[in-house]
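User: Teach me something about this protein's shape.
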Amino acid sequence: MRLLAVGGLLALAVGLGIGRFVYTPILPFMETGLGVSKSDAGLIASANYLGYLLGALLGIRQSLPGSTRGWFLLSLIVCSATTISMGLTESFELFLLIRLMSGAASAFVMVFGSALILSRLAAEGRSRLSALYFAGVGVGISLSSLMIIMLETMDIGSQGMWIATGILSLLLTVPVFLYVPAVPEPSSGEAANIPLRYSRPLKALILSYFLFGFGYIITATFISTLVRQIPEVQWMQSIIWLIVGVAAIPSVALWAGIAAYLGNNRSYAIACLVLAIGVAGSVIAEHPLILVVSAVLLGNTVIGITALGLVEARNMAPNHGRQILAVMTLSFGIGQTIGPGFAGFIYDYFGDFFVASLIAAVGLVVASSLAWGLDNKKQIPPALPSDQI
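Assistant: First, the predicted structure itself:
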């Protein structure tokens, strides 16, 4: 089971840590080397998140042909191929198309990977290993950040960075084929024919997850660019994303431990508040220490909130595991699709990310209040023990 969790870790490193988030540290080099504007940068990011949204929509379908593992592995290959493809063109239109495809593949990695791996860990009584699984996002961010720092010292531009990180993705994908073996697909029982019921608490969680997606993504997309714009801290432009990645690695285990004492919903709510502080802090002060703290708060909460939200939703709808994971991913995807484009155009109007980031922080506060008020008098116990994440 530990090898299965490691396979999941590598998959999330490829599909999310690199496939989705490597755009953030490469973006400043695209701006200087290719002349990409802030609004265009926002649209490229939004294309990726629109693809994520479309992938989640497809993931909701119960009638998709083929096996869960087949879609999962194919998606990893597409993530690697599209990352390499970003370095083979300078066309804005192709950037949009490639990042759209990459986003859809990333959503499939999350939806099918979580359904495949989390369910098997739970069935074997090894749910604690899911913290290792979710650590993959931080591992992917950290590895790709280190590679970009190295490539920067070699004076390699954005196109070389895309190709190199895409090759890294391919290398990381190979062990996943070995560590995540095929298993018999679950048969459709009576529970699968019962329609998913959207209770008021579940609707509140889905709305909160949407606001979380909108609230985190502006900082996650533009933090490296933001640092590059401040002369006193330009030296941090590549390091700042590495800090986010390192902080993300232990985040799920940390928030699972907090949830064991405070309950799942309240831990989720507190994490959203902590993230709101990090998002606001990234634009309120230009001191290196404040920016480092903001990066740590971003990395230390985003994956924790993601895990808490997905596990809570799965517990609310235990007979519709893959479907509710896809619905949550869809809600999250809508929020993060809106965010970068919104921030890019607000930047063009005001000349900075201050207003957009503060709006995002307010959205996270609302997300926190929705989660705090959730009533857990449903099919699940009031608190989620740490061994359920």
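Now, about its shape. The first helix runs from residue 2 to 18. The radius of gyration is 19 Å. If you'd like, I can walk through any region in more detail.
User: That's plenty for now, thanks!
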